[in-house]
Amino acid sequence: MTSLDTMSPSLSPSAPMAVGRTAPALYAATLFCSALLLFAVQPMFTKLVLPKLGGSPSVWSVAMVAFQGFLFVGYVYAHGLARALPPRRAALVHLGFLALVAWTLPLGLAAGFTAPPSDGVTLWLIGLFAASIGLPFIALSASAPLLQNWFVATGHAQARNPYVLYAASNLGSFCALLAYPFVIEPFLTLQQQIALWSAGFSALVVLIAVAAVFASRGAEVTASSSAGASPGFAQRLSWVTLTAIPAGLSIAVTSYITTDLAAAPFLWIVPLALYLLTFVAVFRDRPWVSHAWALRLVPYVVAPLAVSLLGGAKAHWLAGMLLNLTVFVLIALACHGEAYRRRPDAGRLTEFFLWTSFGGVLGGVFAGLVAPHLFNNIYEYPILIVAALLAMPGMFNADARTSAGIWLREAVPVLLVAAALVWLPLAKQLPMQIVLVAIAAAILLQTKRPVRHVALVVLAFVFTGFGQARLMPVETVRSFFGVHQVVESADGRHRLLYHGTTIHGAELIRDAAGNPVTGRPEPLTYYYPGSPLSDAVMATRVAHGGRLGAVAAVGLGTGSLACYKGNDEHWTFFEIDPEVIRIARDPARFRFLSECAPGLPIITGDARLTLAASAPRYDLVVLDAFSSDAIPVHLLTREAFAGYLSRLAPNGVIAVHVSNQHMELASVVAKVGASEGLVAYFKRDPGADSFVEDLRAKSEVVVLARSAADLGDLPAREGWQRLTPSPDIAAWTDDYANVLAAIWRKKRGD
User: Fold this and answer.
1) Domains of the chain (ranges plus CATH)?
2) If you average pLDDT over every residue of the chain, what do you get?
3) Which of 107, 230, 613, 660 is the least buried, fewest Cβ under 10 Å from its Cβ?
């Protein structure tokens, strides 16, 4: 890699070579503050949007695409400004742009975006982001390349390599993302965050104005007059490719590791923060991790991921998350390090950032917009990992004919083995663990032969994705809200619905003799007779004289709860995902709706909005909404419960399913309920110990009412206990929700 000391400076010979010792510190501090504001607004505004969009990780994926698009527009503006005007005039234009943005503050949701449409949610969300924060984001993103360009014009000795300032910019971004979950979100409401952000923006304008003064004392040159030789097509393509892959991976890995937790900024920002930290690590004179070591380590960490990524449920979630993040970080280090090695001289700085930001847009569009429509599972993740391996240096060093011969000799035989493992009956009898260990060992042994190594990684993905026989696939479909799989158990007796890695309902379809089961199906999983949810329905019915009037069930799944509907009771389901509705209504998939409640109304949309807008007064509201294993946070706030209570009958009951592997939510619901004047009772299911045999799952449920008398005999039933809200837990609101504390309580066993 070219050292900083031997780079050819692209400054004009007439440029003064010193403007004081403060210039580098000033520009670094200004870039740091600009990036701090830029990346603080991402989780902050996305959290503001969540009450309108539900709890899908896709909200963050689409938001990331929008942010990358705004970043690209900002870099186009910066590149054009730097080429057309000298720093002094460019600074005046940019300061005018910043003043226009300041006039639009404070940040908030744009008018006209009251509720998302039933179709075209992605475009609606991008439009919301563009109308609400498009201008501030573009102005802030343009500041980074402009400030680096102005630093070149100061004539300072260190301006020979202004790219190192990019590390200061990304360090500010990293600090913003790190501070959000630990300092900002737990202690400040959204309105306080917005006010603090506006004050920071005003301070930044002052810093940029001072930086512009330093630049105006330097050379009056434009980028076009100081640029070196124009880079060729291959070099530009390499910049785009090497930045597109990590950008796409940041979205794919975020969606993958957050599926079972919650749609919360705390969880989304971890991969993004690490992504930005890789820029800090390699865009410098002495990288934290040498480029050679990053390239050397990537093949070794990919091996265990290749044999586990598509292979079933995440039994060891924390270990899996660490493995995925490690692979992601090393790939990003390798790609960004290679892009930095191929950077142009300082005069082409804004063009370099223009093309790299374009790569970020392409990667984001592929992973966030195209892949969900192109694939019925998260196949973009392994595709991007393979693309990263193909983009490593040395993969295609030979001429076209020689390269083709190498691939034919080394890759084709491996891919034929993959086909045999997946489709030949004899190969399917091999023990899964033995095959996976053998493939992983082969990948590790072939790290010195890149073509064969890549082919073996592809084999691992193919085998784990399509070769497992424990569950027989019936249908896999992907929507904005996640991946849904209808599968049958290995013995063919049960049919299950998976959302992500979590079962959302199951039905017995054949008896022990293999004969089809007919008649009214029995609810299983969390809904079996005697479960906490069935207790809540039965006790509320008894309290209402043996018959419920209107019942609202939030979250459809397979429709299991419909089989608790009594005669002459009016039940309504509220479901945000049209694909779930289609699956549940299809009797060839599940028969709960068709047998137990044919014609039962299902209202499409986010229940927080649609339930509050409905006409009936409900005797019972069941909140059973999950995104995989995660409960959408916006459904558990005071504002959400105020909406439920507005439609609750005078003696009505709210039952909340709070089962979660990673967050303790019962105390949150109790606190929110107490703030609305409700009493709360809780049950952790002590039974259901034989899930593999009978598919009865343990669950946790909180039941709330205005008075304990409205709960009938529920408080006296086995396992139910009164929940007293803890003074140490704050009620969640749209303005404040402490997800980190809920995770910590679960880990402590509270």
Assistant:
1) 22-391 (1.20.1250.20), 407-469 (no CATH), 472-508 (no CATH), 532-748 (3.40.50.150)
2) 80
3) 230
